[in-house]
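Team,

Forwarding the record for the chain on the shared tracking sheet. I've put the sequence and predicted structure together so nobody has to dig through attachments.
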Amino acid sequence: MATTDLIDLAIETSKKAYVPYSHFPIGAVLLAKGGQIFTGVNIENASFGLTNCGERTAIFKAVSEGVLDFEELIVYGETDKPISPCGACRQVMAEFFPQDLKVTLVAKNKSTVVMTVKELLPYSFTDLE
């Protein structure tokens, strides 16, 4: 699937976000190497610490299905500039993605910034070898 199609899917997915407190929907689309697609949205909770981001929702869905090989992550937010993942999402990306995995960040006008996991979290906490 082309990146532009994944961006459109991320925008459509964001409409399913559960955001009664922030009113700030996020849509994420994770493309696995086998072609499988996992979507995620942010899911808020009155106890804010229990809120989950769209990126982590998509990653956790994939991992819970036994999928661990990925090609690309798209993250859409209703922001003027391409959305920036939070630190927790960056650390989860570092856990499950290769350092060179393409992460496309998308704004509401569909402008993008393409980065790698390593660029998002250059000195990540990873398995100590």
